[in-house]
Write a structure and sequence with these properties.
Elements lengths: L11 H15 L25 E7 L2 H8 L5 E9 L8 H4 L7 E8 L6 H12 L7 E2 L2 E2 L5 E5 L2 H16 L10 E4 L3 E3 L7 H4 L4 H17 L20
């Protein structure tokens, strides 16, 4: 876990210290979020039917949730855990990197407004780097891997075909390592993780690594961006 990724941002001393560090780092050209990689839309896609869900993992769920909460056609985004068992679906346990879980988001979307393939295009373009193995930016560990958890054969087919398409097009300078696995279960994260980007925009980790992702979404996908995010309304501050 990155030092900047303080999980308890409202503790006064920690906030002051992180704020000073963040201010210094934000002025440094050596520390910044990755620039967007604009990838082509998927050649295999589906955009019909009732409301659907997509479960994606791509590093810290704060930023991934924050990006998709600003996407038109998305009805709800919940941060949580996928890939492991119910007994280990707690943040402190998942953070060991030994549970099989990945920090993930469950996206409920209207396929009449946005397709599953378009969600994957946004994910690979601005939400996370699909070439980083068991890490994302400053965070390392299996819990920060990128993974697509498919709910049915249609989602598996679209995701696998899209990765093949991007690989053949040499879209990225390194191989795509994003996994495509069946969704066994999704477990919502603790309430204090929900809508974290919205409620803590000045937290150094958010300011340095996650807010630029939302700006990239606005710049790269203006037709899919909405200024007012759709929130879970569950966020609360953890009190020791």
């Amino acid at each position: 876990m990155s030092f900047l990724k303080s999980r308890w941002p409202m503790q006064t001393v920690a906030v002051c210290a992180l704020g000073m560090i963040g201010a210094i780092l934000l002025r440094s050209p050596l520390v910044r979020a990755d620039a967007a990689v604009v990838v082509q839309p998927p050649s295999v896609d589906k955009s019909a039917g009732a409301a659907q869900t997509a479960v994606l993992a791509g590093g810290c769920f704060w930023g991934v949730q924050g990006v998709f909460e600003h996407v038109r056609g998305v009805q709800k985004v919940v941060s949580g855990y996928a890939g492991g068992e119910a007994a280990t679906a707690q943040y402190e346990t998942v953070s060991t990197g030994r549970t099989g879980h990945a920090e993930s988001v469950k996206i409920t979307f209207d396929p009449a407004q946005i397709s599953y393939g378009q969600l994957l295009q946004i994910a690979f373009s601005v939400a996370f780097d699909p070439t980083q193995l068991n890490r994302q930016g400053p965070d390392s560990g299996a819990q920060y891997r990128s993974e697509i958890f498919y709910a049915d054969e249609s989602q598996r087919s679209i995701a696998s075909a899209y990765i093949d398409q991007l690989t053949k097009a040499h879209t990225f300078p390194r191989p795509i390592v994003t996994r495509v696995d069946p969704l066994k279960a999704f477990f919502p994260a603790e309430d204090y993780h929900q809508d974290y980007l919205f409620h803590h925009p000045t937290q150094p980790y958010i300011a340095i690594y996650d807010l630029p992702k939302v700006e990239n979404l606005k710049r790269v996908f203006p037709e899919l961006y909405r200024g007012q995010p759709v929130l879970t309304g569950l966020s609360m501050v953890k009190v020791d």
